[in-house]
Amino acid sequence: MKERTYEKYFRQNRLPHIWCPGCGNGIAMKAIVLAVEKQKLPRDKTIIVSGIGCSSRASGYMDFDTLHTAHGRAIPFATGIKLANPELNVIVITGDGDCTAIGGNHFIHGARRNIDLTVVLFNNTIYGMTGGQASPMTPLHKKATTAPYGSVDRPFDACKLAQAAGASYVARSTAFHVQHLTSMIAEGIACKGFSFIEALVQCPTAYGRKNKMPDPSEMMKWMRDNAVMKAAWDKLPEDKRTDKFPIGVFHEQQTVEYTKAYREVIELAQGGRK
Amino acid sequence: MNNMKLMQGNEACAAGAIAAGVRFFGGYPITPSTEIAETMAKVLPSVDGCFVQMEDEIGGMGVVLGASLAGKKVLTATSGPGFSLKQELIGYAACAEIPVVIVNVQRVGPSTGQPTSPAQGDVMQARWGTHGDHPMIALSPWTVRETFDATVMAVNYAERFRTPVILLMDEIVGHLRENIELPKSDELNIYPRRRPSKTRAQGYEPYAPEKDLVPNPADFGTGYHIHVTGLVHDYTGFPSGSPAVTEEFIDRLHKKIAIAQDEITHYDEFFMDDAEYAVLSYGGVARTAYEAVRQAREKGIKVGMIRLMTIWPFADKVIRRNAEKLKGILVPELNYGQLKYEVERAAAGKCPVKLLAKYNTEIFTPSEILKAIENLEGGRIL
Ligand SMILES: Cc1ncc(C[n+]2csc(CCOP(=O)(O)OP(=O)(O)O)c2C)c(N)n1
Ligand code: SF4
Ligand SMILES: [Mg+2]
Hints:
Chain B: Keywords: Oxidoreductase. With 274 residues, chain A is α/β, with parallel strands linked by helices. Chain A has 10 helices and 8 strands.
């Protein structure tokens, strides 16, 4: 059996976690620590920052300096940490509501600044923690407690949003594709700029039950059957794309990173002194 | 004389912040506080600090709290509308015990109100603006030089008590220019960032209180692997649903400030020795009040003045002690009446307390306050 080397990254005394049986959050959390291990990030210099939601509870289980902020505010806190001490590696864990509703403004501005954060969005397309209200990423016509007749709000594509706002690295994967997800996060960590990884995760409790998919394994099979690798997706004719979605790296272009740009401000202010 | 400088209140605030060791500012521009951000943008990079303009005031609070956790001394500045937005994370700072100074250069509200006009309408918001039970320290300077001192003090208190501290300025003092002499750096007492008193191996608990009831959570990146949350937490820093833990936690937050209250209550008394009446004032209004009291004395009215620099926690003892021997207290405020009710509560019926409220964008004239003093003396106090 393969040694579970990643377990050292968890606070064993804080487990078991509070998530429901079958919840996808644990898979995404494991993918993050596998990526941290893969990139050999020094644990004392790696900070995990999260917002509020089921997903954001992950920070409490991870054995680093960890910060569980307020709803939607993880990115500003993370920005402050990174600017205060650029040698730190800062990973943000957020939910679809946390990142694109209440935290939407911080999200696009973090991407615009291109500050070196790795933001992992656990997308369960619902407000899990508060019992299943619609989020800005709930698919059209799907049910939520606040959309009992099906949602009429058009959802965000958070990857497109991140790219348009200026992120250096943008990718998507799912809880079914664990190894793929891990490498997407690892690449995001390696990228020195704002990296955004959307991880589709199943929420059988608040989303599945309301949308005729209460079984977590069914939800994961749905991910397997409908996720299409970017290269194949690009060749897929429009009429074959219905209900399917692309995964993989959508954008990778490293431009000047914010803490580096500010280093230049410091040099200018000090008259060119290094 | 060599160190004399013509300085604006807002500039003195920025200078005080730098002198106190602030090396990080994040915020969003708003009149009449903007000069603080502008000065910090210019000065911070030259002292290896960092300035960042955020997307809004919530982001401005978040970014300074993150930087504080990573070891920097931090400050943010705003005015009414932005102060409202900052309330969410002021509560976070109180709960997670993160040192931060929030400057509010008050203007007329509610809402966008009168952006360029002075007011003192945020006295109660400074105390109770964020939700839940929490202590608060707020300082309100009345001169440009005192703005410098109060900023240094605010940074020191934020670090010492690991709590948000509000520098409650107003447009009068923020935009006032005075010739001042700044203290030399070796004349200042600067409170350093608190450090863990134990190692992890010695059983370090980041939120275990020290003797002064303040904990020493380690700065991020120093190897302690601490957890910081806005949920109620026990000494380990992890959330707890226990009623006993919650009660002790809320108690301790209050007590860590309460046991130091006398030490952090700063005020002046003028002409109080034989005073039968007093004017109680604070901030920019105290300047006018002082002139009015001086003129009243010239007319032979036995009136004195109490000037509060520490607004919160409220100077109950000072008011109570004076109320015992006074026939009345006049409280002029540039609002509809806010601190007056605190004065009344603290006076506890020992003497009547009268409000002189003004909320039309104009500042008081000495003659307005003088007239109110004469009315007090005429026995027409309400
Ligand atoms: C300011 C504020 N508004 C509302 C809430 C209540 N709330 C907590 S979590 C949450 C939604 C979480 O959804 P999401 O970000 O998608 O995370 P999930 O629980 O699905 O992982 C809400 C609305 C809050 N904590 N703070
Ligand atoms: S409600 Fe959904 S997201 Fe939250 S723990 Fe349960 S399954 Fe996971
Ligand atoms: Mg969600």
